[in-house]
Every structure is written in C-alpha cells, then in structure tokens.
Amino acid sequence: MIFQLNQSSNSQPAEAVRSLTESRRLLEEAQREISETRERSQLRPKHTFSRLPAFFPRRAEMQAVELALEGEPSFTVLFGASSTGKTALLREVLSREQYHVLHFDLRIAGFADLASLYMSLSQQMQLYFEEIAKKMEGYEEFSREAWSFKYDRQNVETRVAEAPADSKSRNVKTSDIARLMELFQSSLLKYWEFQPYVEEEHHTNGKQRQSSEATSDQTHVNPGNSAATLNKSKRWTFRRTSKTKRRESEPASETLNNPETPKPKQTKKMPVIFFDEAHKLPSLIQCTDAMKCLLDSMLVLTKQDRLCHVIHATSDPFYQTWLRQFNVMQHCKIITIGDCSRSETRAFFRDQVLPNVPERLRQGLKFELLYEAFGGKLAHWNDYITDYVNSNGRLEIKQSSHFLQAHALLNLHIIHSSQSPNAQEAAETSQAANTSNPETLHPGLGPAGFKVYPPMMSPHGPPGTADTPEDRLNALIAGYYSADFSAMQLLKAMSRFTQQDTTYIPYFLLCRDLGVRAVDGMVKARLLDLRWTETVTKENGLDDPHRSGVSVFAPGMGPGMRTPDGIPSYSPPGVDPISVIPIAVDVVPSEEGMIPVSENEMQRDMYEEVMEVVGPKLLPATPIMRFAMHDVVQEYEDEQSMSEYASLSDVDEY
C-alpha cells in the first residue's frame, strides 16, 4: 500500500511535465499557423498585367480594340498568327484605368484540371471585388461580395477533404463552376446598380434645407404678408442668381465652400475577362460539360446581361471550329491582327532599329531586302538585327535563325514523307496504277511522316482526344506518322505561293484542289496561316489585283497572255477564268501632265472591290516562311537535272 502511494506520487509530476510539454507544443503550432495565415493574407496571388516595354504603337489595331470595348459588352475573339503582337496590343489597351482585367495567361496556366480551374476563377473574382472595395470610395460594402467567393471556396475545399475516397463529392464538379459563375453574375449586377453617392446627396440636400430655414427664421417679416414676401424673396433670389454668380448670398457661399459637398462620381471600371492563348483550353480542361458551362456563362455575362467584356486571344485559326461545336462562335465578334504594314515597318526600322545599330554597320542593312524576307513581323526584325550586330555585320539573311528553321521545316516534311513505309508501299504498287495518278508520276512520294504541330486536341475530333506522351516522343521518327498531306501536295501549294504577285490563295479554292484534310494539315503544321476575316491593317500597303492567285482576264484575253500592265495572268487548275467588266474611268490630265490624287485615293486600288475574295484566305505562316519556300521550290525544280523526289517543271500537272 505504501509502495503504491509512493509510485502514484512519483507519476503525477511526470504526467504534469508531459502535459505541459504537449500544451507548449500545441501553443507553438497554433502561433505558427496564425503567423502563416497572416502572411498568406498579405501575399495575394495577384496576376501580373501591365504594359509591355518598348511597345510599338499600332493605331489602327488599338482603335479596333478600343471600339470593341467602348460598345456594349461582347464576346470578342482576337485571331492572329504567332508573334503578331496580340498580347502586347491588348495589354497596352487593357492596362488603362477604366478597365479591370481578370487575366488568364494559358502559357503558364494556373489550372490544368477542373479543381484548379475553379480555384483560379474563384481567387481572381474575390480579388476583383476586394480591389473595388479598397480603391473606390463609397464601395466598401463590396468586400462582402468578395467574402461570398471566399466562403464558397472554403465549402468546396471542406467537402472535398471530408468526402470518402470513392465518393463523387471528392471531386470538383461542373455544378461548382456553374454556382461560381452565378455568384459572379449577381455580384456584377449589384456593382452596376450600386449608387454610392445617393445617400450622401440626400444628406447634403437636408443640410441645405436646414440652412435655408435658419436664414428664413433670422429674417424679420410681417406676419400678415409672410406668404407673399416669401414668394417675392424667392423670385428675387432667382433673378440675382441668374444675373451673376459673384453676388451670391453668404449662406450659399458657405454651402459651396463646405468641405462636405459631394465629390464627383467615380467612373466604374469595366470588368474584362481575358484568356490569352485560349486555344489551350481544350487540352487543359477536357471536361466537355465544364467547358460548355463556362462558355455559356460568358455568353450570359456579355450578350444577355451586358455585365462585362470577354476576350479570347488565340493564334490557332481552328479555335473557332471548337467554339462552333459549343454553339458559341456565331455570337462572337472576330478581330484579326496581322503583321505591320510597309509604312509601319519602315517607321519602326527608322525610329527604333537604326538608332541602336552602330554607324559602321548600318550600310549593310537595306530596308527593301529585309522587308522581302521578314515582312512586317517586327519580332523577326528584332531578332535578326540583334544577331547582325553581335556578328559584327557578317550575318546574311539566309544565315539567320528564322530562315534556317523555316527552310529545315519545309524540307523535313518532304524528306520524311519520301522515306516513310507508306511511301515505299505506294511505290511498289504504283506500276499498275493509272498514269494520271500523281503517285505514279512521282514514285516514292507518300503521306508526310513528320509531325510538328502542337500535341493538342484536334478541333475536328471528339473532345478529350489528345496525343499521348509516347506519341510525342516518337514525333521525330521518319515514317512513324502519316500526316494529313503528302509531300507532293505541299510542293504544289508552295509553288503557288511563290508565283509572282500572289499574296494569298482562297481557302476554299485550295481545298477543292488539294482536299480539306491536306490544307488543314498544312495549317496545323504551322506552314500556312488561315485568316477567317480581313486583318485590321493591310500588310502590303497597296493591294495588287493579282495578289489572290485568281486571274482576271479582260475581254479577249486568255491564259498565259499579259494584261495591259505587263503582269502575266495566272489561273489555278480547274477554275475557269473570271471575266471582269472593264471599268471606264475618265481621266482629265492637269496642266503639268500629272493627275492630282489625294492620299486616300493613293491607298485604294481601283480593282480592289472587284478582286476582293469573299471568305477565308491562306498565306504562308510567316514572311520568312514564304522567303524559304522560294529556295525549297528551286531545289525541286528541273534545271538541267531530274529531282529525286519531285518535278515542278510540268505546269500541266498542276
């Protein structure tokens, strides 16, 4: 008994020490969690969205974007090839004070599945209303709107964490995205209906009435004529005020000088949801229902409720096909951004390029030669000039990185296709084929086997179909892939783009000749660029009547004959020449033998309305790609020797 008492008395201090140690550990953990929570609340995940340095102003494109944003809220899709300046242009415009941007740059997307998409949207929407409550006077109550997104996100996190592993509640669902967009809709509706200065104006008007009553009490009037005197006083005061503002009464001046007078109303910022590189959405979020919900919500916010603008910028022309699958594209505005015009490029070369080039190296830079190679793509100009200066002026255009990449890409498509197993099988069985078959005329040419276009979901295929990592690892194996176009089809298209004065080819015309699959494959391979609408700025300045590759014959002319301006006519195969009624123009020469022409008339082509092709157009992906096509086509032309792969000298074949 005594031993047990001694043992219990010895164990009590040990238990007390252990309890104190555990309490101390829990207290330290609680303090650490409070400190981390405080730090996290101070470091918000704000997205960088500011003007890009050294932005070259493009007034026509900026005006087009500004007009789209100044009108009623809309869903705008901004198309444009890579490196045309879409991001820089939108950042220059959207960084202004009148816009608040919810920016999602899918190059470094903050989401890759449905759960991260929900979290990213919720955090940005919360930040948006926190900024309103913080920066706009009188809008402090919109911090409650930010709380709604915070607590909804916490509820989703709690549900996912507490749900069993095999439960469907453990995942973020499409209904969570729908509820989030509904919260954003109701908060925006309250934002546009909110009038922060109405109560203040009522308060100020009440003070003015009290001041006027006090002034009336101090005025001694005859009780019998009070009504008449008051009316006369009011009329007299009105006349005095209308005559001059310098004779205002003291109470009125005190009211004007009162610091509590209402300030001018703040202009509400227009919210803009901006997805950059939006064509990556299908590969990031492969849930069709979630994408349908998100896109429909954007239509509701823009076309239906007119609460905000939505802008999707993309370099993939087939993004509109994906949007059309969700019944969205017909509700969108389309703006197409191209390269700079010749005059803009000349100004860029004169004002921003030459000043950074040493004097001794400037004589080697000829604008016309450089423009023939790089066109109006300013990014390629910058890269070449930088390498030119670093090489001490010893860098030729055909030694530049962009030319070598374009030249190699074109040859890889042709060479790999000639070595593909499908091509060899076609060559073995081609003897019994019809002699009019291109495979018979050019044995060894089969489907191209070099896959270079991005491993993304095909816009024509069912949602959720994407390339596997094994496919991407084998992309450079010759003959492993069978692309959508053959080498012969690529050479035929290249020969047309290298024709003199052919700037573009109508999309449907080339599809009828080579097939839709082949033409779309060239676009996906980044060899050609497809434009659904006209660019904001004409890239080549004056339009040429033969730029489309479709011939125009005057009455009595035929193929191969020359037009009055000396340019040989050209007609694609299988297409009848288009007859154009000659336009009679009465020209009255001036006294000096010259015709005065205004600047606007100089920019117009009298054949422009006649020659303008309705519908989408195809161009080489970049100006340097067109420049490289000339060299590649010359390599495969029959000049004193027969090419191993193809012959382009037989015009009748094309």
TrEMBL record:
Superkingdom field: Eukaryota
Biased composition (Basic residues): 232-246
Pfam families associated with the record: ATPase_2
Residue intervals of the ATPase domain: 55-377
Residue spans of biased composition, Polar residues class: 207-231, 420-439
Gene3D superfamilies reported for this sequence: P-loop containing nucleotide triphosphate hydrolases (3.40.50.300)
GO molecular function annotation: ATP binding
Chain segments carrying region Disordered: 202-268, 420-445
Protein name: ATPase domain-containing protein
Originating organism: Sphagnurus paluster
